[in-house]
Each structure stands twice: as structure tokens, then as C-alpha cells.
Amino acid sequence: MKFLNFDIQSNWKKKEFENAVLLAKDFIKKGDIFQIVISQKFNTQINNEPFDLYRSLRMVNPSPYMSFFDFGAHGISLVPVLKLWLKLKKTIKVKLLQF
Questions:
Q1: Residue 36 resides in a domain
Q2: Higher pLDDT residue, 94 or 79?
């Protein structure tokens, strides 16, 4: 995918994503889950300042939950919408699913 002259790579191949959606639908039908967020990770190499890219994204999508993390030599993370985590007052069982 091309975006502003960047070659952006997704962590999903189209067929893998489609299979993950079908699997999620199956879990929903069985009642194991009622909601799922299947997200993508995008990677690219840029020559510009990473924060400039963040500012450009923020101008297009001025979400109050956007975030920018600079991990130095380990890379940069741009999160257009940061998920809000809730604190629970009681214990629940969680099953992690691998796709």
C-alpha cells in the first residue's frame, strides 16, 4: 500500500485476515465471545522526522486518544486511537486466542 510516498507493509496477508474474521465469527456464534477487534500493524521506513508523520496524522484525524511513542533505536509507535483500558473490581477469567 502506498501512502504519501511510503511503502507500508501490513502484518496480515489478505487470506490470513479473512480467516481470522471467519474464526472470530465462529467464536461469536458459539457464544465464546461477543466482540472482537482484529487490528493491523503497519511498518515502513521513512526519512522524515517521525513526529512530523504523527502531526500529519493528527491533522487528518484529531483524536484526543492519539499517541506517539519514541523507543529510540528500537523504533517508533504511532497509535491513531489509543484503546482505553478499564479497571475491574472483580476477577474474570480470560482466554487468549491465537489466530
A1: yes
A2: 79
